[in-house]
Amino acid sequence: MSGRLVVISNRVADPRKAAAGGLAVALGDALNQTGGLWFGWSGTIVEGGTPGEGELHTQQAGSVTLATVDLCREDHDSYYLGYSNGVLWPVFHYRLDLADFDAGYISGYRRANQMFARKLLPLLKDDDIIWVHDYHLIPLAAELRAMGCKQRIGFFLHIPLPPPLILAAIPQHEWLMRSLFAYDLVGLQSEADVQHFARYVQTEAGAEDLGDGRYRAFGSTVCTRAFPIGIDVEEFSELTHAKEARDTYERMCEEYARRRLLMGIDRLDYSKGIPHRVRAFRELLAHYPENQKSATLIQIASPTRESVDAYGDIRRELESLCGAINGDYGELDWMPIRYIHRTVARKRVPGLCRAARVGLVTPLRDGMNLVAKEYVVAQDPGDPGVLVLSRFAGAAEQLKEALLVNPYDTHGTAEAIQQALQMSKEERQRRHQALMARIRAQDIHWWRKTFLQVLEEAGSD
C-alpha cells in the first residue's frame, strides 16, 4: 500500500486487544504497517448535547491513532437506533414488515454522517487510502467529497444488499444509493449482492455498464465487486487446540456421551431463523423417531438489542417453542433442546463446535455468517461434523459442500439434518476437505489484501 490506511466504522476497537474481534484483527495489520487512523463513534451518548456536534477524542494504540466522536442523545436515537437499525437493518435483511419508516430518522442519519465527515477531514493526509465500513456510514464519502476530499475511498457493506424492489421501499432510496457513487470501490459480500446493485443502478438510475463491475451514473464511476469476508483460520485453529476449547470439548463429550449433538450459535436476531430451526428439529424427532433420546440440540442465542420490540417477541417465541418440545419429547434422562440465552466466551466456541456432529447455520438472510466457517475449521479432519447451511447466507456461495437448505422449508431442513446424522465418515471427510481448502484460500487476510489492492487500482483510473 502506498499511503496510510484510514478505517472508518461505527465502532472502533483497539487492534492490540485480542478480544477486539475479526475486523480489528484483519485491519490491525494494515493499520500498524502504515501508521494508520481508525475513526468512529466513541460509544458515548451525551444527554442534552447539541445535534450535529460531538467532542473528538484521539489516543495512540501503538502506531495506530484511534479517533472517536461522541453523539448527543438525539443524533444517536435517529442515526443509530432509528435509521441504521430501525430502517436499513430490517430492509437489507428483506424484512419490510419490521422497518420503521419515520421521516425524522433520515435527517439525523445524514446529520451524524456530516458531523463525522467534518471531524475526520482535518485528520486526513493527501495520500491516505480511506476504507469505510457498513450501513451506518453509506453517505460518508459523499459528505467528504462535498468538503473537497480527493483521496481514494472504498466502502464495504457487511450485510446483504437486497433486490431493487425491496431497496425502492426505503423513502429517499435514490439519495442513499446515489451516495455510493462517491466511492471509488463498493465491496459486497456475495455475487448475488453485486447483481442486486447492478440491477438497481441500471433500472432506477439508468447507469451505464462499463464492464468489469464498473458503472457510470450521476457524473461518477464506481467499481463494485464481491469480496466474501473470511476468518483468521490460523487464529481459530489455535483457539481450537487451546486449553479452554479442549476442556469444553472434553466436558461436552463426557456429558453427552450417549447423545449426538447438534449445535446452533447465534445472536438472538430475527434474521438468524432460530425459531424455524427449532421447528425443523421438532419435525426431525416426529418423522425420524430413532433420534429421540439420541439427538440433542444445543441452541445458544446470545443477547442482542433487547430494547427493540422485535427482539422481545422472538425471545418469547423461542422460549415457548423450546419448552413445548421439551415437554412433548423429553425424558427424565434426556432433554431434546438445551436453549441458552447468554453469550458464550469466544475461547469456548471452538470446543462446542468440535463436539457437535451437526452444525446448524440456517439464517433467513445473512451477509456472510462467519460461524459457518468457524464450525468447519474447528472440526477434527479425521472425524468431522457436517455443516447444514442456509442457502440465504452469503457463505452458501463459497461453502457448496455443506448441506444447503431453505430454512423456510421445515420438512426439507429436517431431512437435511437426518442426512447429516446418517452421513458416512468418508463423505464427511471429503466434504470437510473441500470446505477447508476454500476457507483457507479466502481467509480474512485475503479479504483485506484483495479489497485494498482493487481500491488502489480503482482510484488510479
Q: What does this protein look like?
A:
It is a single chain. The chain is an alpha/beta fold. The protein has 16 helices and 16 strands. The protein has two domains: 242 residues, Glycogen Phosphorylase B (Rossmann fold); 209 residues, 3-Layer(aba) Sandwich (Rossmann fold), CATH 3.40.50.2000. It has a ten-stranded mixed β-sheet with strand order 3-4-2-1-5-6-7-10-9-8, with helices on both faces. Helix 1 links the parallel strand 1 and strand 2. Helix 2 crosses helix 3. The chain starts with a strand and ends with a helix. The mean pLDDT is 94.
**Tally of separate helices:** 16
- What's the CATH architecture of the largest domain? 3-Layer(aba) Sandwich
Q: Might you state the CATH topology name of the largest domain? A: Rossmann fold
What does the average pLDDT come to?
A: 94
State the gist of this model:
The chain has 461 residues and is an alpha/beta fold.
Features:
Rossmann fold; 2 domains; 10-stranded mixed β-sheet; globular
Topology of helices and strands:
Blueprint: E1 5-11, H1 22-34, E2 37-46, E3 56-61, E4 64-72, H2 73-92, H3 103-120, E5 129-133, H4 140-146, E6 152-156, H5 164-167, H6 173-178, E7 185-188, H7 191-203, E8 208-211, E9 214-217, E10 220-226, H8 233-241, H9 243-255, E11 260-267, H10 274-287, E12 295-302, H11 309-329, E13 337-340, H12 349-355, E14 358-361, H13 370-378, E15 386-390, E16 403-405, H14 410-422, H15 425-441, H16 444-459
Parallel strand pairs: 1-2, 1-5, 2-4, 5-6, 6-7, 7-10, 11-12, 11-14, 12-13, 14-15, 15-16
Antiparallel strand pairs: 3-4, 8-9, 9-10
Helix pairs in contact: 1-16, 2-3, 3-4, 8-12, 9-12, 10-11, 10-14, 12-13
